[in-house]
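Async update (no meeting this week)

Hi team, since we skipped the sync, here's where things stand on the single-chain job. The sequence we agreed to prioritize is pasted below, unchanged from the tracker. I ran it this morning and attached the output directly underneath so nobody has to dig for it. Comments welcome in thread, and please keep replies under the output.
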Amino acid sequence: MSAAALGQTASAVSPFVEEKIVRDDNVFRLSRGTDPTPLLGTAARSDTYRVTAAGLNLDLPVSRQRFLANLSVNDSRYDRFSQLDYTGRDLRATWLWQAGNNVSGQLGYVNSAALASFASIGGTAPDILKTQQAFFNGTYLATPRWRIQAGTDGYQQRNSNGALQVNDVDIVDGELSLSYVTPAQSSLGFSVRGESGRFPVQQPVGAILVDNAYRQYRAGFVADWPVTAASHLSGRIDRVNRRYDQVAQRSFDGTTARLQYDWKPTAKITLMVLAQRDLSPFEYVRSSFVLVKGISLRPTYSLTSKIDLSASYDNVTREYLGDPSAALGITPSRIDKVRSLGALLTYRALRTVTLQLSAAHETRSSNIAFGDYAANVVFLSGRLAF
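Output:
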């Protein structure tokens, strides 16, 4: 029985523990044409590992303010590839602030440490990726029809693997938009955004060291349209200009766009469709900014009040446009095609107990030798909240 049903006030702090068992048949995302024995000392590509996590969630309303936080640590242990064992963290805190009736926004901070995906590393040496992000944004309803939004954030990424520290980066950006809002809550606005990136470690390319620092500006239109009571359409289109001081021929000047459609025809069914041609906002491989083109689907079906079945499908082409080696003609420009299909079954056995079973299949083809792979991942998890 819930606290509300007992006439009690729900606690603002909710501790939890979680155990996950994962089976991955291609842990290092090796190409079909790669013999793993010289690299790993075994012909096996697969492994089973366990992830034990513990932490707490905070949801604390104070007058018109609201404070949210998720603080967790996780420990991963591999049966075969014990060199990948690590303890990570995920710390998130957000203040949803409100000043009067017309001004609101968010102030937040994120700090995480996790094993970087081997799909991005392109090798077998582990890399612990540490990231920090601080952000602030605000919305001002100047009139019932005109909305002004502004925000800024800073992002820092550090890699533990010395060979990958050329991807360490510090990014600062800011955005300002003005939108017209209709009585039906549709909106159309104009947005401008500036961004600068600094790389503490220069990238060796041939006999020279390349500074990957850049400046990026984008300007465009943003729109939001509640088509019906059951459907919602949002999107943006921008002109983007990205400039490098060194190896300027890799600079980018083009149009990007994102369109998202959300549909909820019944209380049990939801569907999200995303189509995009956009620059990837955060990359493990920072020295090559990536143009992402493709479509994603996210359907969900609630079988019962306790059981949800969701799926995911992604079909994406990734063009690595900012690589200085490619811009100088030393290596070909890399293009990957990634397809993934997954399913997730969630069972809320009790108010405090959640069980999940997931299966996913992913393939990548590439114009780079040994850049292809196929992987199947299955996991079972149980979560207990107090």
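Quick observations from my side:
The radius of gyration is 23 Å.
The first strand starts at residue 13 and ends at 24.
Reply here if anything looks off.
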